[in-house]
Amino acid sequence: MSGRLLSSLPGTELAAAFSRAIRLAQKGPRSANPRVGALLILPSGDTVEGWHRGAGTPHAEADALDRARAAGHDPRGGTMIVTLEPCAHSGRTPSCARGLIDAGVTACLFAHADPTERAGGGADLLRADGITALTWVDAVAHTDHASTPGDAAAAKSLTADAQRLNDRWMRAQAERRPFVTAKIAQTLDGFTAAPDGTSQWITSHEARAAGHRLRAHVDAIAVGTGTLIADDPRLSARTPAGDAAHQPLRVVIGQRPVPEGSAVIGADGRFVHLATRDLPAALTQLRREHGVEHLLIDGGPTLIGAALAADLIDDLWVHIEPTLLGAGRPSVLGLNPSTLTDRLDFDADAPEIHGTTVTIHARPRPAAPQADTAGTPDRKDV
Ligand SMILES: NC(=O)c1ccc[n+]([C@@H]2O[C@H](COP(=O)([O-])OP(=O)(O)OC[C@H]3O[C@@H](n4cnc5c(N)ncnc54)[C@H](OP(=O)(O)O)[C@@H]3O)[C@@H](O)[C@H]2O)c1
To answer: Is the CB of 306 under 6 A from ligand 1?
Structure first.
């Protein structure tokens, strides 16, 4: 059923290769693009690593093939082990399925299918060309070596790990909405505007520049009508030299009308007012009608709070300025917890420093696979 190399690999060695592919995927940046790792096992037994470094860069399989060729290896007859099904479509980068066919690999083992309509189906393309294309679980079950129940369990657990690499991306795809990033600029005591509504500027010049770099990477930027009315923002991406080359679609969400002459309207026709508070509908509309795959919600506190309450934020940037206001508009409104366990937990990267501002990049913490059985903490632990 498979190439010579695949049949020569026992289940335990496959599990080690799957695990290495996951570690490679973890090297990629967390963004609206899936993190993917690939390990090319050559007929000689040599291995070549690849991973995806973010939007517009080679996919993991292409990276591994490029590195193999650069090192003087011939990929023909190799087995590609990858954390996500090779894509079937050509976009900013060529189709990975086509790249594997052209490279002459004989087998491709992927953790799970690509859930997107655009890119899914790569495994079928490979099979149509006579290449063995199996999920990790099927590969262990079908290896010519006797695989043990332990091998099967390891393949299943590693598949779950590979899915967890991109849990929020997978969720956005399943909900047919854009991947949603939110950005907050706040004081040390959690205020995003002073009592009179002024908020320009809370954070340092350097933090605002980082915010503009983020804007230049997304397809659209949204604010609520509250921010529109308070700040009259342009919602453009700017660099020290002027407007960035890529300008996202400008979006206002909320039922109040957009005042005539608002800066956000612009002159280029790239402005949309979604006169609704139904966020899931607004998000699917942005993707369906405007092709938005990555949306940045740039405030304010009511819109971000509503999106958090609906579990629609996949990625969060919080810029914290070491300054105190003591009163004002909190950075998030509308969560309404009644007790500590109502909180929303996030996993954060190491903080970044931008000038005087501390920046936290975080994402919603995935639900624990099992219930916490540790019990109520002893009073002394509190
Ligand atoms: N420091 C920062 O990073 C930052 C960033 C942005 C804003 N701000 C500050 O935030 C203040 C504005 O706060 P804000 O909370 O009024 O602004 P907001 O969150 O931008 O807008 C709130 C409005 O969003 C609309 N909306 C859309 N979907 C909603 C939903 N599902 N649930 C509730 N509302 C929804 C509602 O408008 P309708 O009533 O029209 O339906 C609501 O009144 C200003 O002072 C501004 O300067 C600070």
So the answer is: yes
